[in-house]
Design a protein that fits this description.
The protein is built from ten helices and nine strands. The chain is globular and about 45 Å long. The protein is of the alpha/beta class. The two termini are about 30 Å apart. Strands 3-2-1-4-5-9-8 form a seven-stranded mixed sheet, sandwiched between helices. A two-stranded antiparallel sheet has the order 6-7.
């Protein structure tokens, strides 16, 4: 895969950090679960593609592309897609899915990205930002690689849901982490997410130079009703993820590339 030997600074992070969110250790199991699950295949991905709209001919960076299902959906709609992910294991699965026509790069979103200013029309970041304590450097870098008028389409754990995770109940207005175990194929893996209040999310976008266009709390795809009757009802009645479209102002300076 592209740049597979060009290791970013993030690969020098401590072994303690590597033990959480270590997608290399469960890439196959996670990808298999993600492929057809209610929240991914019938909720998160359809919502992201709907917000993206007509992407034919648009240059799109899939930031945190994982094994590439969203990249594939956008490519099949005519987008010119590039993927980045911190997990080489997940990118190997993405390469298997996408073939050689989609450039894939090992890159941690906390580090500088290997792209020119204004290289993309859109960035999609599906269920990625809640892995980060500080959104500021990442959003600044995503804005840099977007052309004036470009869009960032992002989804995160809904802050109201994240607030309910933890005992004792956390301070909603504080940025705090929470850890939990995911189980895939009988393997339990430790994860750490960061929760922020809604206003802090919006403030982070605006501080990075974006303007808010859409906040969305979508419903699951109706075709999932018969496949997941119980889960469909719950997901239709309770928030799960929150979706944003934020834009670079068309007159923004400091971003290269064609408008």
């Amino acid at each position: 895969m592209d740049r597979s030997t060009d290791l970013p600074a993030s690969f020098a992070r401590s072994a303690q950090q590597a033990r959480v969110n270590d997608y290399d250790s469960f890439a196959e199991a996670y990808s298999a679960e993600n492929e057809h699950s209610l929240v991914n295949a019938y909720y998160a991905r359809p919502a992201m593609t709907a917000l993206a709209g007509d992407v034919a001919g648009r240059r799109i960076l899939d930031a945190g592309c994982g094994s590439g299902p969203l990249s594939a959906a956008l490519r099949d709609r005519g987008a010119v897609v590039t993927g980045v992910d911190a997990s080489a294991g997940m990118l190997a699965l993405a390469r298997r899915r996408l073939g050689d026509d989609v450039p894939l790069h090992v890159a941690d979103l906390r580090d500088p990205l290997p792209f020119a200013d204004g290289a993309f029309d859109d960035v999609v970041a599906s269920l990625v930002l809640h892995y980060l304590e500080d959104w500021g450097p990442t959003l600044a870098e995503l804005r840099r690689v977007l052309r004036p008028g470009g869009r960032l389409i992002a989804s995160v754990d809904h802050p109201f849901v994240a607030y309910t995770i933890g005992d004792p109940r956390p301070d909603y207005f504080a940025t705090t982490s929470y850890t939990f175990d995911w189980t895939f194929g009988g393997q339990s893996v430790p994860m750490r997410f960061w929760r922020k209040p809604l206003h802090a999310m919006i403030d982070a976008f605006t501080a990075a130079g974006f303007r808010l266009a859409v906040i969305s709390e979508p419903q699951p795809d109706p075709t999932a009703r018969e496949l997941f009757p119980d889960g469909f009802h719950d997901l239709s009645a309770e928030p799960c993820f929150l979706f944003f479209v934020v834009e670079v102002p068309p007159s923004a300076a400091g971003s290269g590339g064609a408008a």
